[in-house]
């Protein structure tokens, strides 16, 4: 039995196109990491959240970020995604220095090239699940009809077609999380950032969400930054990076 | 795992030859380690000796597979007993790993590296199991999940120990 859901037919490009965003130098980077953070430092007041963290992920690769609570995992993800500016160190996406971008450019990058899944509280409560998934597509200029059709395809792929018309308040935690994954993947981001995506789910639902998330990411060639402290979730990754006291320790994969 | 009890359980479905029992066992429980024929026939003759199975017929010709075995009432009672008894929860005392950590601390070597190396190895195995599970049927999933949960427990211990290394270093030194 194949657990990989089929890709929706809506996808415009070729099978494994690495789309360079708006005319940037994307080609030379194809073999190297797509997203890279080097020697990142970040303090909140007197709290040092990151003290020399480095990270890289290549297209189609799933990298787990592990480590104890408070070690700086989420801060690392926020720096990599351009949500929080690091005090020191650099973040490059597709060869471009993310810090050098204007706020508007960074916002556009996040909307068009990045997808996000968090532990909870990410769906707009007033909108139906279908509208929630369609929302980022609409923000990227996709027409309503097309956006909703694609939203339906992604909901089906995540096995929650049945809740398309419900509002998030009326679906279970597991269903809501699948809707959130559908929303994050609907724009076919080049990088998917997932911070404890299964943290609020029981094992069975968590595993299924990870199966669907990793399957869909592998098929679309998205790079995935997967923050988790659960080993069974990290086991869906290709390699792991461990954060301890704001520093990364990489354990190279043998074989 | 008890091959004898498993054979008895399989024989409750009806009489069978040694070869078919082996096939059923390998398929359902063997994972990657099929039974050797020697084990199969040694087990059956032991069951026969204890009256838990009996011969259900012997065909003409040579070789051990002429014999067909059937479970006896005593055999069925034995299966009842086996299923009713809980397995002893394994203690899983991580003595080797614990000794490595303590010795690293005693000899001023980086104990965190011991834990990190082990974590990487555990995760590597967990990835393999996860892959096998994702491509497998329900039986694969259940067997892999069992192993995955145990490995996860080890990893939690590694994490907890990593968090307590400073404390352990002090105690080991005194
Ligand atoms: N916005 C903020 N303001 C102040 N301190 C912060 C902020 N964000 C994070 N911190 C602090 O930075 C440190 C790292 O936090 P971070 O959220 O990155 O940890 P984490 O590894 O994601 O933990 P968890 O597993 O509990 O989610 C913590 O000490 C935290 O209190
Ligand atoms: Mg966090």
Report on the structure:
The complex is a heterodimer of chains A (255) and B (174). Chain A is built from seven helices and ten strands. Chain A is α/β, with parallel strands linked by helices and 255 residues long. Chain A has a domain of 162 residues: Rossmann fold (3-Layer(aba) Sandwich). In chain A, strands 6-7-8-3-9-10 form a six-stranded mixed sheet. In chain A, strand 7, helix 6 and strand 8 form a beta-alpha-beta unit. The N terminus of chain A is likely disordered. Chain B has 174 residues and is mainly alpha-helical. Chain B has two domains: 82 residues, Winged helix-like DNA-binding domain superfamily/Winged helix DNA-binding domain (Arc Repressor Mutant, subunit A, Orthogonal Bundle), CATH 1.10.10.10; 78 residues. Chain B has eight helices and three strands. In chain B, strands 1-3-2 form a three-stranded antiparallel sheet. In chain B, a hairpin with an 8-residue loop joins strand 2 and strand 3. Chains A and B meet through helix 7 and strand 9 of A and helix 6 and helix 7 of B. The complex binds adenosine-5'-triphosphate (ATP) and magnesium ion. Adenosine-5'-triphosphate binds next to strand 2 and helix 1 of chain A.
Main traits of this protein?
heterodimer, A: 255 residues, alpha/beta, Rossmann fold, six-stranded mixed beta sheet, 7 helices, 31% helix, 23% strand, disordered N terminus, B: 174 residues, mainly alpha, Arc Repressor Mutant, subunit A, 2 domains, three-stranded antiparallel beta sheet, binds adenosine-5'-triphosphate, binds magnesium ion
